[in-house]
Amino acid sequence: MRAAVLHETGQDKLEVLDDVEAVGFGPGKVRIRIRATGLCHSDVSAMSGVLPQPVPFVPGHEGAGEILDVGDGVTRVKPGDRVLMCWLPSCGQCPSCRRGQTHLCLAGFLNAGTPNFKRPGGDVFGFAGTGTFAEEVVVDAACAVPIPDDVPYDIAALIGCGVTTGLGAAVNTADVTAGSSVAVIGCGGVGVSAIQGARLKGAAQIVAVDPVASRRESALRFGATEAVSPDELGDAKQRVTGGEGFDYVFEVVGKSATARTAYETTRRGGTLCIVGAGAMDDFLRLNMFELFFDEKRILPSMYGGGDVLTSYERAIALWRAGRIDLEGLITHRVPLARINDALDQMRTGESLRTCIEI
To answer: What sections of 153-283 are H helices per DSSP?
Structure first.
């Protein structure tokens, strides 16, 4: 079958090969025919080495498709079912799951160290234990979440990561209050989803911050009340909040420099929500006095900060009701053979989300 493979960390191009085989099928597993997958910035971060990932690997973790086969013991799904891919399934038994923090379950991460593809030259891993830039993938049954018939594959794929992450950061983690002021730094697919979440929660002012003009324009369509470049953020802080700072600031870039800017843009007693996934050697510096004196809440948000299955259902319900725009997030579509075009579109900021049709 065909799949896009990164051979070595640091390469900026993927090679689309037709000699890749999905492996590992057996009890408790499912085989999925991928129909659509989104390109998430985390895929690019894994390619560059910002996020740890064994190589060679097939990127992609934001996918949807149909069940081709199920292993022994699998009862929740059957061949022919339409599903989205959950890259962080919960085991239901670990301490995090028993506390109700299923999004912190480590069971899914353990899969990342087991190859789920192979080529004539050896094993190939799937990013985050999945690898949706492929025609087929074998994963644990818990990764396959059934979707209603009226949800298209491309929409389902977005819900599998970017939408759930951004929407949940505003709704679950930060729990934005009505009438508040919000700034969102980084307005790709996840950032725009955070904007939609803040709008749903009733924020009065939502300032979108991004260096790319087209993304700033898009943010206005999704609910931002104004959009500024990074060097205009200080003026926006003064104009919108009288210099005090925003009630909520979302950092959706994953860099210490923007996180520090986000901290300084948050008012005393306000909330800084860290959504971007950054590198292990990139340290955010705060002094002990400012932590004490400013009393700003710093809230990291992992995969939307809530039960992902509940978050999926909520996103579908809001989309059906016309309360969130998911179709508009998809600004480009390319076939798998042109996956490197999608990478270029993300790196230049041209796209919010590119859907790879497989």
So the answer is: 153-159, 162-168, 189-200, 213-221, 233-241, 256-265
Average pLDDT score over residue span 56-68: 98
The tens digit of pLDDT for each residue in 10-49 reads: 999 999 999 999 999 999 999 999 999 999 999 999 999 9
User: For residue 136, which phi and psi values (nearest 5 degrees)?
Assistant: -140, 155
Helix (H, G, I), strand (E, B) or coil at 239: helix
Phi-psi domain of 269 (left: phi exceeds 0; alpha: psi -120 through 50; beta: other):
left
Burial grade of 235 (CB within 10 A; 0-12, 13-18, 19 or more): exposed
Q: What is the CA radius of gyration of the chain?
A: 20
Phi-psi region of 80 (alpha: psi -120 to 50; beta: other; left: phi over 0): left
Q: Which residue has the tokens 């087209």?
A: 214
- 322 three-class SS: coil
Amino acid at 8: E
Check whether 246 has a pLDDT greater than 90: yes
Closest CA relative to residue 174, chosen from 269, 260, 300, 259: 300
User: What pLDDT digit, counting tens, does each position of 94-134 carry?
Assistant: 999 999 999 999 887 777 788 999 999 899 999 999 999 99
56 DSSP assignment: S
Query: Distance from CA of residue 249 to its chain's centroid?
Result: 18
> Encoding tokens for residue 29?
């597993």
Closest to 200 (Cα-Cα) out of 327, 320, 318, 352:
318
For residues 21 and 118, the answer to whether their CB atoms sit within 8 Å is yes
* Paired tokens of 292: 């004490």
Crossing angle of helices 189-200/213-221, nearest 10°?
Answer: 30
Closest CA relative to residue 37, chosen from 7, 58, 8, 15 = 58
The arithmetic mean of pLDDT across residues 295-314, rounded, is 96
Q: What is the mean pLDDT of the chain?
A: 96
Do strands 353-357 and 29-38 pair parallel, antiparallel, or not at all (unpaired)?
antiparallel
Q: Report helix, strand or coil for 31.
A: strand
Residue 353 main-chain phi, psi, to 5 deg: -140, 130
pTM of the predicted model over 0.90: yes
